[in-house]
Specification:
The chain is α/β, with parallel strands linked by helices. The protein has a domain of about 60 residues. The chain has seven helices and ten strands. The strands form two sheets. It has a six-stranded mixed beta sheet, with helices on both faces. Helix 3 crosses helix 4. The longest helix has 16 residues. It is globular.
Length: about 230
């Protein structure tokens, strides 16, 4: 009987002796940790600790130069461009700089991942409208993204990342440009997505955010990473 058949959770991401850097200089070194399928994890650390670098590697933008990174059971070191592209289709990403298609409307930006999948326009419209109402941007559905404020762009970027109901969601400082009330609402969206099986990884420097939501945490410091489990309630 396999581990899966026994009901044992399998790692969806696993790092073994992984190092990554730029211009022959390490940013993160000798990383050993794994994230289980369906887990919720914060990545914390001071500015410059390597949070964005770690996420760049985990969502398959950059390969480690040392060690083994396994995502969805596949060794990324030996994956070609085509295989990486297929894996990325199972991943949602909220970038810190949004990376929206500024000339397109709010609707078209959020609909894009569903159109890539070949979903019908009727179903795309239903899903996009439902999500826009949740993030309180339905009235802006056809506004070009280059007319939005930073906080509005942040909400659209999050909606685009979650609309496809990805297997893994990475978010880099997703609440950094919005007010506390909307930040809480978007965090509840991440929590609900996690409850239906999405593995969620959020990079944040906000100690208040990690304190308000009791999930496991990867702390980055001095080029290394340590995984802390969620606190158990007595």
């Amino acid at each position: 009987m396999t581990d899966t058949a026994k009901g044992i959770q399998q790692p969806i991401i696993e790092l073994q002796n992984v190092s990554i850097g730029y211009d022959d200089e390490d940013v993160l070194s000798n990383l050993y940790f794994s994230l289980l399928q369906g887990s919720f994890t914060f990545v914390s650390g001071k500015s410059g600790a390597g949070k964005t670098t770690l996420l760049n590697m985990l969502y398959l933008i950059k390969k480690p130069y040392k060690g083994t990174l396994t995502v969805f059971g596949q060794n990324i070191n030996f994956s070609n461009r085509h295989n990486l592209s297929l894996l990325r289709q199972r991943i949602g990403v909220v970038f810190q700089d949004f990376r929206l298609l500024e000339h397109l409307s709010v609707y078209d930006n959020i609909a894009l991942p569903l159109r890539v999948r070949g979903m019908s326009e009727k179903e795309i419209y239903r899903r996009v409208v439902e999500l826009l109402k949740w993030i309180e941007m339905y009235k802006s559905i056809y506004r070009p993204c280059n007319t939005l404020s930073g906080g509005e762009k942040q909400r659209v970027a999050i909606a685009r990342a979650v609309i496809n109901r990805p297997d893994i969601l990475f978010a880099d400082e997703p609440t950094g440009s919005i007010d506390p009330e909307m930040a809480d609402k978007l965090m509840r969206l991440f929590v609900e997505l996690n409850k239906v099986g999405t593995t969620v990884v959020i990079a944040t420097h906000s100690t208040q955010l990690t304190a308000n939501y009791n999930y496991q945490r990867i702390d980055l410091s001095n080029g290394s990473a340590k995984l802390y489990p969620a606190l158990k309630h007595v």
